[in-house]
């Protein structure tokens, strides 16, 4: 049985542990690391998974999922470097960090797979994009695909596209939350109670997302189906265009991509 260790038990790390348990993995085949003892006790009590030090995780696990913040990667790599060999599989969930960073810091031949998930992993609806590093094989990708399929959908992309993926789907949920927040405020401005405005908008978002997922129609056609001539929707769309909402989204996502590139370059020793 494959032993999986999650290094960093924040929200994404915890969500992955939860998804793996619901997917049939035994608590005894899972490990996690976490710097705060109270958090270790909380997760062990809730999931029955043991918290360990990085050294024990590296020695016992076949797959090590690195889920720390990008700025915290250096000490983790320092600990892992003397402990891992080609028989281990490293799965990086760290935004912006290329597989070349791990390959440069770890022993020759250690396979690395880069992943960009997103926070809907917390409700088993993640969108995760995976990319193979220099030493990762199709079998390694299959292991990672199976692992992540417990918490959502998985696609494979060339690593050169990962910064764009980070900007689009990695940060994507925040853009939707931001829009929903603004729409709820609009409902309040129009005289609706906050709770009612929230209920109306959230269910509209859920329904619209389901239509997008289950329909073969292009988003433009779905929007046009709501947009009657001289109606309320076309007046709203006119205002969105007048205020440059589309252009602002394009610029925002491009800025997120640029920041992802910066995070990777911050660890570039070349």
UniProtKB/TrEMBL annotation:
<dbReference type="Pfam" id="PF03807">
    <property type="entry name" value="F420_oxidored"/>
</dbReference>
<dbReference type="GO" id="GO:0004735">
    <property type="term" value="F:pyrroline-5-carboxylate reductase activity"/>
</dbReference>
<dbReference type="InterPro" id="IPR000304">
    <property type="entry name" value="Pyrroline-COOH_reductase"/>
</dbReference>
<dbReference type="InterPro" id="IPR008927">
    <property type="entry name" value="6-PGluconate_DH-like_C_sf"/>
</dbReference>
<dbReference type="Pfam" id="PF14748">
    <property type="entry name" value="P5CR_dimer"/>
</dbReference>
<dbReference type="GO" id="GO:0055129">
    <property type="term" value="P:L-proline biosynthetic process"/>
</dbReference>
<dbReference type="InterPro" id="IPR053790">
    <property type="entry name" value="P5CR-like_CS"/>
</dbReference>
<dbReference type="InterPro" id="IPR029036">
    <property type="entry name" value="P5CR_dimer"/>
</dbReference>
<dbReference type="InterPro" id="IPR028939">
    <property type="entry name" value="P5C_Rdtase_cat_N"/>
</dbReference>
<comment type="function">
    <text>Catalyzes the reduction of 1-pyrroline-5-carboxylate (PCA) to L-proline.</text>
</comment>
<feature type="domain" description="Pyrroline-5-carboxylate reductase dimerisation">
    <location>
        <begin position="159"/>
        <end position="263"/>
    </location>
</feature>
<keyword id="KW-0028">Amino-acid biosynthesis</keyword>
<keyword id="KW-0560">Oxidoreductase</keyword>
<keyword id="KW-0963">Cytoplasm</keyword>
<dbReference type="InterPro" id="IPR036291">
    <property type="entry name" value="NAD(P)-bd_dom_sf"/>
</dbReference>
<keyword id="KW-0521">NADP</keyword>
<comment type="similarity">
    <text>Belongs to the pyrroline-5-carboxylate reductase family.</text>
</comment>
<feature type="binding site">
    <location>
        <begin position="67"/>
        <end position="70"/>
    </location>
    <ligand>
        <name>NADP(+)</name>
    </ligand>
</feature>
<feature type="domain" description="Pyrroline-5-carboxylate reductase catalytic N-terminal">
    <location>
        <begin position="4"/>
        <end position="96"/>
    </location>
</feature>
<protein>
    <recommendedName>
        <fullName>Pyrroline-5-carboxylate reductase</fullName>
        <ecNumber>1.5.1.2</ecNumber>
    </recommendedName>
</protein>
<dbReference type="GO" id="GO:0005737">
    <property type="term" value="C:cytoplasm"/>
</dbReference>
<comment type="pathway">
    <text>Amino-acid biosynthesis; L-proline biosynthesis; L-proline from L-glutamate 5-semialdehyde: step 1/1.</text>
</comment>
<keyword id="KW-0641">Proline biosynthesis</keyword>
């Amino acid at each position: 049985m494959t032993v999986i260790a999650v290094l960093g038990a924040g929200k994404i790390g915890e969500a992955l542990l939860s998804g793996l348990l619901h997917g049939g993995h035994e608590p005894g085949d899972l490990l996690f690391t976490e710097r705060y003892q109270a958090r270790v006790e909380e997760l062990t009590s809730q999931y029955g998974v043991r918290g360990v030090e990085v050294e024990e995780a590296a020695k016992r696990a076949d797959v090590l999922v690195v889920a720390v913040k990008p700025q915290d990667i250096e000490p983790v790599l320092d600990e892992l470097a003397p402990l891992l060999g080609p028989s281990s599989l490293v799965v990086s969930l760290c935004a912006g960090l290329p597989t070349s960073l791990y390959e440069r810091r770890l022993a020759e031949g250690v396979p690395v797979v880069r992943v960009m998930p997103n926070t809907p992993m917390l409700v088993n609806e993640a969108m995760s994009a995976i990319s193979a590093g220099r030493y990762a094989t199709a079998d390694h990708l299959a292991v990672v695909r199976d692992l992540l399929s417990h918490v959502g959908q998985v696609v494979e992309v060339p690593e050169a596209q990962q910064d764009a993926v980070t900007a689009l789907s990695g940060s994507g949920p925040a853009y939707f939350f931001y829009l929903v927040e603004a729409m709820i405020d609009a409902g309040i401005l129009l005289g609706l109670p906050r709770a009612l405005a929230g209920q109306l908008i959230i269910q509209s978002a859920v329904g619209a997302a389901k239509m997008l997922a289950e329909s073969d129609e292009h988003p433009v056609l779905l929007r046009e189906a709501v947009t009657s001539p001289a109606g309320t929707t076309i007046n709203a769309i006119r205002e969105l265009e007048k205020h440059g909402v589309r252009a602002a989204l394009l610029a925002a996502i491009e800025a997120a991509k640029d920041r992802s590139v910066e995070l990777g370059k911050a660890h570039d020793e070349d």
